[in-house]
Design brief:
By secondary structure, the protein is α+β, with helices and mostly antiparallel strands. Helix content is 27%, strand content 12%. It has a domain of 129 residues: Ribosomal Protein S8, Chain: A, domain 1 (2-Layer Sandwich). A five-stranded mixed β-sheet has the order 1-4-5-3-2, sandwiched between helices. α3 runs parallel beside α4.
Length: 196
């Protein structure tokens, strides 16, 4: 065990003198991600996602939309669209790719988070970003065992056609409090592909 070092009275006095003029920050919140000026882009239509397993009548919401079962903070999430290559999915789940974008939803309400995710996915699509991470947190301060943001993000991402897959991140990237998101890339223009 490391021993505590005592600060001499002269060092303490010097420190107090140096920080005497410091003013505390009035606001210490950081914006979740940088809003870059972008051109207006038409948003991709939301579609009903196909579930990984057959759903019962109790998991169908209004309009026949699939609603995933609630998950607890420690539960890992995994979703992928049919037809995704197994090798790509394995690489994706292991975090063997370069993250190109990040969205941190900590401290947001569910409504704010939904709006941020819409903007974030739109910006990712515009920039042709393939791999992103969305940090929703583990909901330790939640009054129920089912964190609202984690469950909402799990539901919302399935509804976006451009989301090919998502899974809980590795512990180094946030574990069950974050999701890796695999996005569709824009189709290449045949004329530009021939020129290369």
């Amino acid at each position: 065990m490391k021993r505590k070092t005592r600060i001499s009275s002269s060092d303490a006095a010097l420190f107090r003198q140096e920080v005497k003029q410091a003013n505390p920050l009035k606001q210490d919140k950081v914006t979740p991600y940088r809003h870059l000026p972008t051109a207006q882009v038409k948003r991709a239509p939301r579609v009903d996602a196909l579930p990984l397993h057959s759903e019962s009548e109790s998991t169908m919401g209004a309009g026949g939309r699939f609603i995933p079962d609630p998950v607890e903070a420690s539960e890992a999430l995994l979703f992928h669209r049919p037809g995704l290559q197994r090798s790509l999915l394995r690489k994706f789940q292991r975090g063997k790719f370069t993250l190109e974008a990040e969205l941190d939803l900590h401290g947001m309400t569910v409504t704010e988070a939904e709006h941020c995710i819409e903007e974030f996915l739109s910006e990712c699509r515009q920039r042709n970003i393939r791999f992103a991470v969305i940090i929703h947190g583990k909901g330790h301060r939640a009054s129920t065992p089912y964190p609202a943001l984690k469950n909402s993000v799990n539901h919302w991402l399935r509804a976006y056609h451009e989301v090919l897959a998502f899974c809980s991140a590795r512990p180094a990237d946030g574990g069950t409090g974050a999701l890796y998101v695999l996005l569709k890339t824009a189709p290449r223009d045949d004329a530009s592909a021939r020129d290369q």
